[in-house]
Amino acid sequence: MIAEEGKSKEVILTGIAASPGIAIGSAYLYSKVVPKVSPRSLADDEVDAELQRLQDALARSEKELQKIHSFAEQKLGSQSARIFEAQIMILQDSVLMGAIRNRIRNEKKNAEYLVFDEVDKYRRIMSDSADEYIQERAHDVDDVMNRIIRNILDQKLFSRLEGESLIVSESLTPADTVIFSRNQVLGYATDFGGFTSHAALLSRSLKIPAVLGLRTATKHIKTGDCIALDGYGGALIIHPSEETIESLRRKEQRLKEFDKKLEGIANLPAETLDHKRYELSANLELQDEVEYAIQQGSQGIGLYRTEGQLMGRQSFPSEDEQAAEYTAIAEQMFPHPVMLRTFDIGGDKMSPVPLKEENPFLGWRGIRVSLDRPEMFLDQLRAILRASTKKNVRILLPMVSKIGEVRKAKEYLKQAQHDLTLRRCPFDKNIKLGVMIEVPSAAVLAEELAREADFLSIGTNDLIQYLLAVDRGNNMVASLYQEFNPAVIRTVKSIIDAGHKHGKWVGMCGEMAGNPIATILLVGLGLDEFSVAPPILPEIKKIIRSIKFKDARKVADKVLTLPTEFEIKEYLAAIVKEKLPDMPVEALDTSQDKLYVPSSKPL
Ligand code: PEP
Ligand code: MG
Q1: Which residue ranges form the domains of the chain, and what is each CATH number?
Q2: Distance from the CA of 460 to the center of ligand 1, in angstroms?
Q3: pLDDT tens profile 102-154
Q4: Which DSSP string do the residues of 155-198 spell out, in sequence order?
């Protein structure tokens, strides 16, 4: 949207609020262009010096990557830092580097050209692959190649920024996110990427504001442009006016003040004014996040996305490796519960299994992969069982679409228990098994699934995409992805009722559980547990502590009569404003859809 603001023209782009905070400053347009190289012939007596140039550049590149690795390890933990070990391994690949050295000797050409020519061959094969995992690895090869070439040419590395900047890029790899954070980075803005992407997750851990999925940011912005990033509301403003800057600063101030009011809430229970208690737990993907979740007052892990373990790997972790990780998490969280979800690979998530599918979200994903790969599934089930000795571990199955899948998974669980009994390995014999309700057929069959399982957990991220036929990662249809669509709310209600009819506990681990506008409604619908991203935990607790269950029920009854998502959102936002007048209204601004129009769509 282009709005006339006095003399200055503001351009407002909307995207996904991936990491909270406001950032205003100068843009740095980061484009991953390979430095220009061209072939140059060498005289015989120049060959040795050229080999030395290459050697020096490799040594410098390795030193830089080692530094980044240890920085990432310090700031984010060893698991997240593993990505950089893979890059260092490329540098140390003796076959690849040997081939480049041989070509310098035989072809008598310059080092930067031969590095480009040789490495690019591999990179192209990888990026042409239909397998997303291999495509991702091509980015690593790309990064390493650029680093070596820049070091040969003695060029300034992109990771060394002058002064404070906001990074604007088509996309950011986890490596970019960490590398830039070493500088005075104020924020991240990208054309692609969603709330659950790794760049988003790392930005939140690094506490750097980020708005992703802006689609056209790199087309509109030049390096040096003044931009403002609203990581709370998911907007980027190019050439912001004085008034806009002031209003964003005020917004930041109000949100910070509200955050201060939440200090100390971590040690209080998630209990309504009429004393109904809720389990308020965290959604995590990496072991490194556990401590932060505890600090935020998490009373358990409602969803541990075990596929986070696959980041930067080409094979599945062994049973022992998995058992060590799960045990450490269960111990850290004890006595609170930890729901370990079995690998949800496929869809838009990475996978060490080669996948080539036309329609991956409707394809080989989650429990389907596990049931088709019994060895992998049994390894994971045994690892989970080994971590269950303190009896605070539960199993969660993703992407279930029929009863047979749960029955089959239970057979494998029995087999895993039998294997461990033979090995005299202790485990919780009464371990609870839950089912994610995230596919419409599972929602329809919720009663039968509740009979079959020990508990249900509603995965609204997928449930909404499958129920409303809206790709959760596609910005073109983002406005149709509606948490408050009456169809979604009625489905959530029927799942909760189905679980309760069979005496089963029903939680929610989709992003809707962490939406402050939804909290009162979900309490009123009878949800037993909220599992949310750790940063939002205190806010959700504050809302729960500010309401009465009996009032929330009335709110839910009223919502169930409203016919459109707009009316529902507006009604709920008004209730939150009434119950929590000091809560920043921006967080509840239902008129945002009207203010910020999406950037233009292709015809
Ligand atoms: C969900 O679908 O709501 C969910 C929590 O799972 P994920 O986001 O990992 O697909
Ligand atoms: Mg899901």
Answers
A1: 11-27+163-253 (3.50.30.10), 44-152 (1.10.274.10), 264-587 (3.20.20.60)
A2: 7
A3: 999 999 999 999 999 998 888 888 777 766 566 666 767 877 888 899 889 88
A4: PPPTTS-SSSEEEEES---HHHHHHHHTS-EEEEEESS--TTSH
